[in-house]
Specification:
Blueprint (H helix, E strand, L loop, with lengths): L5 E12 L2 E12 L3 E5 L6 H8 L10 E3 L2 E2 L5 H7 E4 L11 H6 L13 H14 L15 H13 L5 E5 L7 H18 L2 E5 L3 H7 L2 E6 L2 E7 H4 L2 H8 L1 E8 L2 E9 L1
Parallel strand pairs: 3-8, 3-9, 6-7, 7-8
Antiparallel strand pairs: 1-2, 1-4, 4-5, 9-10, 11-12
Helix pairs in contact: 4-5, 5-6
Organism: Veillonella infantium
Keywords: ATP-binding, Cell membrane, Ion transport, Iron, Iron transport, Membrane, Nucleotide-binding, Transport
Pfam family, one: ABC_tran
Length: about 260
């Protein structure tokens, strides 16, 4: 598989956890500079695939490359300068302010022999500004709403100055207003900052509206991968999700209308 212009390339990846074979011989490439979404039914293996791609679940060293280098060749700090990961439910520090949390994103750049205080402050201010959380900087994390908290976690990730932002179901537990707020923020970071975004979503409509590229998983197998506009179809979603859907186009983008169960 060619890895040119790939943020992550996966080749013939299979994953077994315990006695359960979760992923079966998956090969897929995540394009640089685009928003890519992994979708599929609950329990299909999409979060396992995401975590295998970034080293949170171990896989054979030759199976995964990040920016054309084997995943196994990265130290923790070097990988953190390339990629930031937000899990579905991050551990919430109870006695930390927003600003202190965002400063945690600077850890890959801090060395005992180098004073990075000025640079760190500038990057933290930028991350707070672009996520529109600057007014929250002195608030404690538990005092925030779900949407505010998610934007703050993204600010912390941006403080790492990554080329690639990876998120596992970033809109879970949020109401529709805050879901769209997060999706719009990710799209803006992609368009304005050139940030490559890879995420797992469970909402089909959000996936097709906000993704440039999609990989579709069912029962641990890769069913389809490609530009969203090219692979989105009634038949694909019927096969994968077992629902009656109709894919329409609105403003030159696909739109999924779920009509009911098959």
């Amino acid at each position: 598989m060619s890895t040119n212009n790939s943020a992550i390339a996966v080749k013939q990846l299979s994953v077994t956890l315990g006695n359960r074979h979760i992923l079966h011989d998956i090969s897929v490439s995540i394009p640089v500079g685009k928003v890519t979404t992994l979708i599929g039914p609950n329990g299909c293996g999409k979060s396992t695939l995401l975590r295998s791609m970034i080293g949170y679940i171990s896989s054979p060293s030759e199976c995964v490359t990040i920016f054309d280098k084997p995943l196994s060749s990265y130290s923790q700090n070097k990988l953190a300068r390339q990629m930031a990961f937000l899990p579905q439910v991050p551990n919430m520090p109870k006695d930390m302010t927003v600003e202190e949390l965002v400063y945690c994103g600077r850890y890959p750049y801090q060395n005992w022999w180098k004073n990075t205080a000025k640079e760190d402050r500038e990057i933290v201010d930028y991350a707070l500004s672009i996520t529109k959380t600057d007014h929250l900087r002195h608030q404690l994390i538990p005092s925030l709403s779900g949407g505010e908290r998610q934007r703050v976690w993204i600010a912390m990730a941006l403080a790492q100055e990554p080329k690639l932002l990876v998120l596992d179901e970033p809109t879970t537990y949020l109401d529709i207003n805050h879901q769209l707020e997060i999706m719009e923020l990710l799209k803006r970071l992609n368009k304005e900052q050139g940030l490559t975004v890879l995420m797992v979503l469970h909402d089909l409509t959000q996936a097709v509206q906000y993704s440039d590229y999609m990989a579709v998983i069912k029962a641990g197998h890769l069913i389809a991968a490609g530009d969203t506009k090219d692979i989105t179809s009634d038949s694909l979603f019927k096969e994968v999700f077992s629902v009656d859907v109709q894919v329409d186009n609105f403003d030159n983008k696909p739109y999924v209308r779920v009509k009911g169960l098959l």
